[in-house]
Structures are given as C-alpha cells and as structure tokens.
Amino acid sequence: MKNIRNFCIIAHIDHGKSTLADRLLDVTNTISEREKQAQVLDNMDLEREKGITIKSHAIQMDYVRGGEKYTLNLIDTPGHVDFSYEVSRAIASCEGALLVVDATQGIQAQTISNLYLALGHDLEIIPVMNKIDMESAMVDEVREQIVDLLGCDPDDILAASGRTGEGVEAILDAIVDRIPAPKGDENAPLQALIFDSVFNPFRGIIAYFRVFNGTLKQGAKVKFINSGHEYEADEIGVLKLKMNPKQEIKAGDVGYIISGIKNSVEVKVGDTITTVENPAREAIAGFEEVKPMVFAGLYPVEADQYEDLRTSLEKLQLNDASLTFDPESSLALGFGFRAGFLGLLHMEIIQERLYREFDMDVITTVPNVSYKVYTTKDEVLDVHNPSGLPDPTYIDHIEEPYILAQIITKTEFLGNVIKLCIDKRGVLKNQNFITQDRVEVNFDMPLAEIVFDFYDKLKSISRGYASFDYHQTGYKPSKLAKLDILLNGEPVDALSSLIHADHAYDFGRKMCEKLKELIPRQQFDIAIQAAIGAKIIARETVKAVRKDVTAKCYGGDISRKRKLLEKQKKGKKRMRQIGNVEVPQSAFLAVLKMD
Question: Contact 308/300 with Cβ under 8 angstroms?
Fold first, then answer.
C-alpha cells in the first residue's frame, strides 16, 4: 500500500488538465502508440466536439523509479463551474491534487474555488504551472500569483508543458514524494466508496469505487450499505484505458465492480460497498448531496414516450449524479419531469446526451430557480415552477436565492463588469487587486439573474478574460411578479416565469415580439399577450392567412363586397374558437437566448 498514490488534476477551464494527463500517460507507457490521441481520456463525442471535459475520468498508471514500482491512480476532472460536483467527488476519493495554472492566463476564479474544495478535504496540493512553452507565458508573474495564493515556497512550484512534455518527469517524482500513501487496513472489514457509475446495456451497471479499508475478492458476496441490496462481485478490476480484471483489490486502490445490476435506482454515488460475511459497521461519511441551481421542465415530444424518458433519465443519472428529476405535468405539454441542473451549460449537455445516447428528443421549458413563498397562513412553500405559485392573495412575501459571485478580470474591463452586475441587481461587496492589472470583485446577486445569459455577456464585455465562480449564500425577500404568456386568452404554462417586478414590462414586451416572429400564421388571428395577474402589459397579433374573397366582385355596389367580408369574418371567428395554437420548440429555446 505504501507504493499507491491517488491524485486528481484540478484547474480552471482550458488550463490544460487533459493535455497534461495525456503526457503523464505517455511517460508511464500506460497507452500504446495505436491508442494515442489528443485528450485521450475525454471519450465522449460531446467532450471532443466542445473541447471541454464533462466527466471525471479515472485511470491507473504504473511508474517505476529507482527499481521500485508505484501505482498511480489519476482522476482528470472538468473545469467548468457547472461540473463542480464531479470535481468534489474526485477530491473525496484522493489524497493529493495537482493544481494546474495556465502560465499565459494566471490564476482564475475556478482555480481558487477548486483549491478551497481540495483544502477542505485536507489534500496535499502540488502547484503546476502549465503551458510554459507558449510565447505569451508570464512565468515569473504567475509564479508570484501562486505563491500569494498558496503561501508556498517558489521552488515548490513545478513548471511544465502539457504539449511538449517538458517537466512531466518532475511532476511524477513530486507525486511520489509529496502525496501521502493512502491510509487503511487491508484486514479490516471492507469499506469502499462508490464515486461514479456507468450503464452498460450488456453487463448492467458498472460502479467505480475507491477502497478505504479491507480487501475485495472476485466472487465475494457484497452489500451496498445505504440501499441495503446484496450482490455477487462477478468481475472486479482496475481502470486502465480499458477495464482490466483482477482477482482482488486491496485498501487504497481504485477499481470497478460488475455484478449484473439492472435497476439504476439501486446504485447511488456516495454509497459504501462492504462484504456480507464480514460487514463494516458504518458507511463512509463526508459525501455531500448535490444542490441543483437551475430547474427546467423536460417533456417528451411524443406523449407516449414518457416512460422511455424516465428510463433514459435514470440511466443518465448513474453517470451524472448531479442531475435530479421529479415527475410533473403541464397543460400545454402533457406529462414530463422537473429536472434540476447545476447551470445552463449542464442543462444543454444533458439535453444533448439524451438525444445522442438514448435517442430522446425533449422539449425544455424556461429554466428558473427555486423560490421560498411565505403565505398569509404562516406556511413556507418551496416553489420550483411558476405554475406552482399559490393565489396572489395568499402570498405574504417571496424570497429568492442569492449567490456570492466572484469575478476575476483585467482592470481595463472593471467598469463594464461592475455595470453588468449592477444591471443584474448585484451589490458590490468588495474588490481586491491581485496584481497591478488583475482585480477580483465580489458581488451579492440573485441567482435568477445569472441563470440566462450572464456568463456569455461577461465573456463578451471582457473579451474572454473575466472568469466567474459562484456559490449560494441563502435567501432574501424580493419583489417578484409572475409573468404569464397568453395565446388567444389561454395561458401557456411552459412559458410563464417569475421575474422581478421592475423588469417584467420590458421582458413581457420582448417575449411577445419574439413569439410573434416564431409562431407560424394560422387561418385565424392569434393574440399573444403578456399578463401579470389579470393585467395585460403587452400584446402582439399574428395576422390570419386570408383568402381574397372579394376577387370575383368587380365594380357594383360596396354592400356586395361587405357581405362577402362579413361572411368570411364569421367563419374566422368560429375557427378561432375551435382552433388551437401549436407553439414550436424554437419558441421555447428563443426565450433562453433573449437579450
């Protein structure tokens, strides 16, 4: 056990984690020449297309130094704030972390946030300055930033390049020398923490675990403590690029287990595996529950695909534990699910994965956050959906979730960033200059304001330099109004939203204009209205497609034409009463992109 090292790679987006992981795999000869490709651990099509890591990836490497063989278990983690739960799970199963900082960009918001996560779990931190081969690298400046952040010795910071492989040997030596070997007792009762799982259509559910105490042998009868189910360990092994079966896995190591589990509800990330004959007394503690930030409705395009959508979401949840969902129904869309996501990118990725991996086409409603509604009867209701709001006469006040937003930007963009945050109802808490031209600002902001397009706007006003991170701080009372969209007098619940009263008029007007462009013309007039309660605040009309009924009347008395037009008008009126308006999927999506 003294020769095992478990570590993860943490950093801000695009600081070169996956490329550095590639070089570590090259140097330790874990992958053959034939298997080599850029970002080899990013094995999902979506990850390759978008150039981001979405899932944490575990892999085992063998490193020989001075005639002694070391087993290194590496977990490569995502950098985007929407996938921070993946990072927290990777950190829970390691003893050390490589903190990678891009020498051309310096320290950014997610660097700091991931560092605090790692320090909270008492991990040994090895600072690595990456991309030193780039012409724009600011090696001395970034080294000073890291020293300020960590309070470490400048000589402790390793300089490397994931692209050329420079300095990678030194990183491997530092992992062996600085990261402590895992603690644990091979002879104690088995305690293994499940940190990830994946559904395989042929073999059932494959769970990835880290053994803290005891030894797991192939064929042993195992029990999942929290769910209480018992299984047989048909196959166990370690994770190389492909799965590598073994006879036994001991304390300190990372591996996988296949036991023919078909029901996805039985495997929960954070559960503890133990043996039936010599069970552990308690589960491993310290695994946090996920808190979704953004909620949206997911509805199947075809009503009879409801059960298929449930199965697909359950299978996806195995691989992405930060997804939560509950059944709900909507007048406009039928039966579906209310799903919780960690952010808008997470929502987009889930939608894309449902389509690619399970061939499920879904309609997504306007995303919103969860509110606390205090009623006149002294009750407190959690409302995730505007249609779940009680009657306005029963509402005493509504509280909405607030976040502490941490933004790091260049000083030249500071004015624009502050203006953006104040427009989004933010209150400046403090600002602090990290270096002469980089500043960190902290804002108290409502979560609902950053749900839509805040991140995109922040990137565009700072030319891509500003980095953003946030965490929830609690709830505060707010002046909110429920904005309904009516089509021909009928509310479309999937388009209704809770919005700050001061912004409701502008938002309602824009929404009506946008829907007018997107809803196709029918045989009758369609009235699109935005309403707060019974008060209509904006209206647009989609004009009817009309036939020229007076074409055959040429000359003669005007009353003949009027008679034909009146007849047509009656027909249109009757049609409007029985006609219903189909809202295209593009209309639901356009609301998200609205400026």
Answer: yes
Q: In the β-sheet with 191-200, what is the strand arrangement from edge to edge?
A: 230-232, 221-224, 272-275, 191-200, 204-213, 254-258, 235-239, 243-246
195 vs 208: CA distance, rounded Å: 6
pLDDT tens column, 538-554 = 888 888 777 777 777 77
Which 8-state DSSP code applies to residue 390? Answer: P
What's the per-residue H, E or C state across 114-143?
Answer: HHHHHHHCCCEEEEEEECCCCCCCCHHHHH
Residue 459's pLDDT is what?
Answer: 75
Which pair of tokens denotes residue 434? Answer: 């990290």
Residues 6+ apart with CB under 8 A from 419: none
**Is there a contact between 401 and 292 (Cβ–Cβ < 8 Å)?**
no
* Contact between 204 and 267 (Cβ < 8 Å): no
Give a yes or no: residue 530 inside a domain: yes
Question: Is residue 125 in some structural domain?
Answer: yes
CATH number at 231 reads 2.40.30.10
Q: SS3 for 418?
A: helix
Nearest to 321 by CA among 290, 296, 364, 343: 290
pLDDT in tens, 162-177: 788 888 888 888 888 8
Q: Is there a single domain that holds both residue 34 and residue 161?
A: yes
Burial of 549 (0-12, 13-18, 19+ CB in 10 A): middle
The model's pTM:
0.72
Please check whether residue 321 is in contact with residue 290, taking contact to mean a CB–CB distance below 8 angstroms.
yes
Rounded (10°) angle between helices 414-423 and 454-461: 160
